[in-house]
Amino acid sequence: AERALRHARRSGIYREEAWGLWWLADAILTGPTPAAAGTARCEELLRGRGELRVGDVGVLGTLALLQAMQGQFERGRQLIAQGRELMESLGHATPLVATMCWRGELELLAGDPAAAEAVLDEARQHAVASGSLETGANIAALLARALLWQGRHTEAERLVDVARAGAPPDSRPAQARWRSLLAAVHAARGQTGD
């Protein structure tokens, strides 16, 4: 991701740089980088940027979740709100939905599944309107987790089915996501397998 971003910056094509920033931010968040080191790297990526652009929103979202992982929930909410405001002003639907998903994840980290449910419901409506099956599946998985944490097992299982239906067969993360959620639903109901 670091190499891709370097090449994208050399190309001078902002769209490529934006993708590079989003991919790098995702790697920082989902890889083995400790939260404090990831925070420092995201702050470095944003340092010296004048006006924020689409690519920076991916970094803001990662930074927000890293802040939440360190107990800085309000700072995380502020960063996500900043990214969401930019996406709403530009009219970019996919990154806008991403900001809603980050907020949902943040609220789960904060231990507030009802707040996560509210924002993820909104994200799901946007995804359905855009016709993105895979995005809808990812949101359904997050929403299922929020419902599961509220003890709403039947509703959660229905959303796991949505996540399963929309998970690309060749996407290991998507396949693992719905399977682990289904296992959590079964465990919450006391249905353990052999």
Mean pLDDT: 92
Please describe the biggest sheet, giving its number of strands, its sense, and whether it closes into a barrel: none
Strand content: under 5%
Which assembly state applies to the chains in this document?
A: single chain
Output the structural class. mainly alpha
Radius of gyration: 17 Å
Distance between the termini: 41 Å
Q: Low-confidence parts lasting 5 or more residues at pLDDT below 50?
A: none
Helical run tally: 10
Order of helices and strands: HHHHHHHHHH
Shape: globular
Task: Classify the helix fraction into a percent range.
Answer: over 70%
The number of distinct β-strands equals: 0
In short:
This protein is an all-alpha fold. It has helices at 2-11, 14-30, 35-46, 54-69, 73-90, 93-109, 113-130, 133-149, 153-166, 172-188.
Would you give an account of this structure?
- By secondary structure, the protein is mainly α.
- Helix content is 80%, strand content 0%.
- The protein has helices at 2-11, 14-30, 35-46, 54-69, 73-90, 93-109, 113-130, 133-149, 153-166, 172-188.
- The radius of gyration is 17 Å and the shape is globular.
- The model has no long low-confidence stretch (mean pLDDT 92).
